[in-house]
Design goal:
By secondary structure, this protein is of the alpha+beta class. Helix content is 34%, strand content 38%. The protein has two helices and five strands, in the order αβββαββ. It starts with 8 loop residues before the first helix and ends in a 6-residue tail after the last strand.
């Protein structure tokens, strides 16, 4: 059997590598354009101040395997007077200061969280 016949790894790599490279670049560009579109859409939305309550909090963690860095994202779900619920990503400091059951004024713009101002609850 000749070495030139049959399986040619170099020609397969010459075909697969450009496809893989284009796919990776496409995913990166798609992510960038999606972020720009969301940012632009949020800027077009009015800034709303609504009465809301904190109904749940959660975190999501990625990475951290072996000696790699772990990233934590903080999310808070608010319920407005109409009964609608909205989840926003918040910073760690804000997350730590909020508690389920807090009532106050939520300020947001589209999918962008601005702040939540807690109202003092009077005792019954």
């Amino acid at each position: 059997m000749d070495f030139d016949q049959g399986f040619d790894m170099l020609s397969i790599m010459q075909t697969i590598f450009p496809i893989f490279f284009i796919l990776v670049i496409g995913i990166i560009l798609f992510t960038i354009f999606r972020g720009i579109r969301e940012w632009s859409n949020n800027n077009k939305q009015p800034r709303l101040n609504v009465d809301a309550a904190v109904v749940s909090k959660r975190t999501s963690i990625s990475g951290g395997g072996n000696d790699s860095h772990a990233s934590t994202w903080y999310h808070v779900t608010f319920q407005v007077e109409s009964g609608d619920r909205m989840e926003f990503s918040v910073g760690g400091r804000e997350y730590g200061q909020l508690a389920e059951g807090d009532i106050g004024e939520l300020v947001f713009q589209g999918t962008r969280y601005h702040r939540f101002t807690r109202r003092q609850q009077t005792g019954s």
